[in-house]
Design a protein that fits this description.
Layout lengths: L8 E4 L5 H12 L3 E6 L3 H13 L4 E5 L5 H14 L5 E4 L15 H29 L2 E6 L3 H4 L5 H21 L4 E8 L5 H6 L5 H4 L10 H12 L10 E4 L9
Parallel strand pairs: 1-2, 1-4, 2-3, 4-5, 5-6, 6-7
């Protein structure tokens, strides 16, 4: 048994980011052509697209502000005309900000997290899901976080945005399931990325001791789950929130 995405087209928001790059590569390794969204990191997006071409995959880079509806829809039109209509959507992008306690957190950070978690997904779904409905097939995979369940002090803006995202995903799964479209969430823990490897920051003792498996997960761990949910191996899984965090957060039944 293998994850086979041959003949499928995917789009990944935040595809030039630390986690996004690994997701893009992994989808391509499974056989998918991948459209790479970026906001400002065009150099990384160009390099990644070239890398995919050496793998024999079709790719392209597409700029958009995922917090603005008109920008997302303009990206959709360009993706449709240059790349094709995606069968797989991976909503990964999110605004980064400095965490503070609620009383000190800037109002703009709460707004930014709502826009980049909730409205980002609303706009991407409105833009790309209608085609999936027409073809009676699709996969929507959304990146959430273990933080949404843990609700640790200092993470309120992030948690609020991701919990709002959770509601959108669950409703969407019920609304479009009859069209053979699945909608699922992957919830990473504090994940080791290329930056950590370069800076030798893989081991974080204070965090690692809170993980039942004893260590942080990697970007590849997250990408593996994304590819599984994007494949037909997960054809009967929808509306799920799946932590990939070594057991640090375990949702109750």
């Amino acid at each position: 048994m293998e994850i086979n995405l041959s003949g499928k087209k995917a789009i990944v928001t935040g595809g030039s980011s630390q986690l996004g790059r690994c997701i893009v590569r992994s989808l391509a390794q499974c056989g998918a052509d991948v459209a790479i969204h970026y906001h400002s990191n065009s150099n990384q997006a160009v390099e990644l697209a070239e890398e995919l071409k050496t793998m024999g995959r079709f790719s392209g880079i597409y700029q958009a502000d995922i917090t603005k509806k008109e920008s997302v829809f303009a990206m959709r039109d360009k993706v449709y005309s240059e790349f094709g209509k995606p069968d797989i959507i991976v909503n990964n992008a999110v605004i980064q900000y400095t965490w503070k306690n609620i009383l000190e957190q800037e109002d703009e950070d709460f707004i930014g997290q709502f826009e980049s978690c909730v409205m980002h997904n609303v706009y991407m779904n409105k833009a790309f899901v209608p085609h999936m409905i027409e073809q009676q097939y699709g996969r929507v995979v959304v990146i959430n976080t273990e933080c949404a369940g843990l609700a640790d002090a200092g993470s309120a803006a992030y948690v609020a945005g991701k919990r709002g995202l959770d509601g959108i995903v669950r409703c969407l799964a019920k609304e479009i399931g009859r069209y053979n479209i699945t909608v699922n969430q992957v919830a990473p823990g504090w994940t080791i990325s290329e930056k950590d490897r370069k800076e030798h920051g893989e081991i974080q003792p204070d965090y690692d001791k809170t993980v039942p498996l004893g260590h942080r997960g990697t970007d590849q761990d997250i990408a593996n789950m994304v590819c599984f949910l994007a494949s037909d191996l997960a054809a009967f899984t929808t509306g799920a929130y799946i932590p990939v965090c070594g057991g640090r957060f375990m949702p109750a039944i």
